[in-house]
């Protein structure tokens, strides 16, 4: 391969990867491991492979007009599927990890797309490959990042209805980019002028949100553990509520509820302490007791049953953030 094709290939592939690495580095809490980022990139590649024959058929039937609406809808739906899966399974809990996941999916998609174009178009015009690498590839990552961020923000209240406005925004960005309202170079400039600012705002707001949740909940967990160890818990409002359940459940079930409450506070406090260490730049050592702790919690949840878990919900509310934390602990 001569020097010119090599330069063209690098221009089409390198910028989006550099951007993705920068986003991952900005995540001070390291919410996503390198492995999970790589998995998202690979799934983005698979999405491009799935879309390729469908896009080819669409272009053959509707011509270039398919690129203005059909392709954006198909591609954003396909890329976003894994982001929705991660949100629904509580593997993504904050805008920052949603943004990295979404951008990684778009990066993988653009890598395959640009490689395909590289073998279909002459590599002599380096400006074309600069536009594809900086503009089109970044648009793919940015559009899917927008879908993931909006979805995770709205998911707690709207559940899966959040997918509607999220996809509308992502598809809208993609359609606008494909519409040709601006020349290719101007579109690239617009993308690079707006997308980094949007993602920086997402990271800044998400870090504030995560920090507020982290430290307030950390204090609650430590306070609960301190009351349990000092014997003052039964005199607290939470303890009074737990004692009131003795009239509805067997004594051994109420005891298991108390044990589950203690273990949940302990596990949550450990998880948050690890996040604080990561924020301070330390790599926390593996916790050998984590697996056993989670196993005991699972056994206790099975012991108290569905009715018991519902009764315990005021003390252990099953919200999306707590489920995300539990999932994160299981995957660590």
Provide a descriptive summary of the structure in words.
The chain is an all-alpha fold and about 325 residues long. The chain folds into 2 domains: about 5-210, no CATH class; about 230-330. Helices cover about 80% and strands about 0% of the residues. It is built from 11 helices and no strands. The longest helix has about 45 residues, at about 185-230. The protein starts with a helix and ends with a helix. The mean pLDDT is about 85.
Task: Give the key terms.
single chain, 332 residues, elongated, mainly alpha, 80% helix
Major sheet, described briefly? none
Report Rg. 24 Å
State mean pLDDT (0 to 100 scale). 86
End-to-end Cα distance, whole Å, is 43 Å
Helix-strand topology string:
HHHHHHHHHHH
Structural class: mainly alpha
- Helix amount, in percent? over 70%
Unreliable stretches (pLDDT < 50, length at least 5) are: none
Number of domains: 2
Shape: elongated
Give the helix tally.
Answer: 11
Q: What fraction of residues sit in β-strands? A: under 5%
The tally of strands reads 0
What's the gist of this structure?
By secondary structure, the chain is an all-alpha fold. It folds into two domains: 3-208, no CATH class; 231-331. It has helices spanning 3-26, 34-62, 70-88, 95-120, 126-158, 163-178, 184-230, 237-244, 251-279, 290-312, 320-331.
